[in-house]
Sequence to fold (508 residues):
Amino acid sequence: MTPTGRADRVLAGGRIGVYRHPLPIRLTHGVNALCLAVLLMSGLQILNAHPALYFGNTSSFDAPFIAFGNGDSAPFPRWITLPSWQDLAAGRRWHFFFAWLWVLNGLVYLGYGLASGRVRHVLLPTRPELRGIGRSLREHLRLQFPHGEAARRYNVLQQLSYLAVVFGLLPLMMLTGLAMSPGMDARLHLLVDLFGGRQSARTLHFLAASALAAFFLIHMAAVLAAGAATELRSIITGWFVIKPTDGAGS
Amino acid sequence: MSHGRVSRRWITRALAAAGSFALGACDRVTQSEGVNATLGLAESWTRHAQRLLLGRQALAPEYQESDISRQFRANGTTNPDTDEYNALAAKQFANWRLAVTGLVERPLSLSLAELRAMPGRTQITRHDCVEGWSCIGKWRGTPLQAVLERAGLKARARYIAFYCADSLGAELDGTGQYYETIDLIDAAHPQTILAYDMNDRPLSVPYGAPLRLRLERQLGYKMAKYVMRIEAIESFAGIGRGKGGYWEDRGYQWYAGI
Fold:
């Protein structure tokens, strides 16, 4: 049984093609990646306009939580901001257009994931999988990744990190972003209070974005370590290739 | 060894070339007018969504006396410093008049004393700058709606324009004078006031003396300082560069609720 309902393909050399990512997942994954790249770069453009972070509702200019740079020039360099030159107005145009696109794309992904049962069957770990978390952690630290039949499903660390991103970090990005809007604050003042004030929401927005950037780097490192060719093929075509291992079948 | 060094240099050059190509391509995309027009669509999505969610009456959060910022940043112009303005300031704005003109039944010329004599509203609110920082201040002023009712808006009026005493640099096309426009929904909002007091004192010069707009559900650049004249208009296409405000003419959103 496969979660996508597509039969396996038997390939040369005893390898098996598994249809891992259905089209809606591949499309929303691609749009999500594009949006997050634009949002990160335009976000740093916006931060360059006032590169200091605070907690509470207001800015304590003489005692910021973090201040970037020396105060003379924009601290985030041109290769990582959008546009590359300093232009807050343009940065805001990019940021808000792609924020809309990203939220709509996220709703399509969630709607499909919940309706198709993929969130439950693919992302939620089973009890035995949860019990294997220690072993999975040791394997990852030695850069050993599951092979053979064990690679058919996400391993438990993958499941937990994807769940944390999809249901933790990404909603936090959206809510802290909304809490910074003076318009939305007329409706969402309880949310602003929950984050500890507008400047706290801005700081949390930055910290959550940093966590997402860290997730991206680990995600890319894991793709490289687990086999860039088959991982990249699977997120583009949907087909993931597993190789038989001696005594496989865990 | 030398082969390794050559190929390393080649790789470095290729990476630098690829990098500058990527940056160049990015720059071409970010400068394209079509791209910018597309990105600008999000402003109307945000405006429609927020108007739907907020309605006409939802109030911006109001705070306690103890929340007032000790250090309130003065941004943009901190002194118009023209002969005309300096003469008014020298006499504590006793000779200043607010002109209310345009599509109104009864054009007005109001002194500060006349504005203060009208029913006022006091509010402790958060000022959010487009740059990202926030300060809390206490404001007292005349609700804009009361002034507009006294002047009597004509049916054709759709926006209110605010003309200011300050200019952020004269430009070749003659623009540079600060101005702002808001629509009638925002003009009628209970927290939209023409503020003459800040933190229980007459508004000082860095913060927009003698009169500034408070528009609490939008960003700071909408809240024109040094207001000299209010005009009821049908369209702002003919003012400045036609985008509805000094910063709007320079690429910022007209709807600044985000």
Remarks:
- The two ends of chain A are 15 Å apart (CA to CA).
- Chain A has eight helices and five strands.
- Helices of chain A lie at 23-49, 88-115, 118-123, 127-131, 133-141, 156-179, 189-195, 198-237.
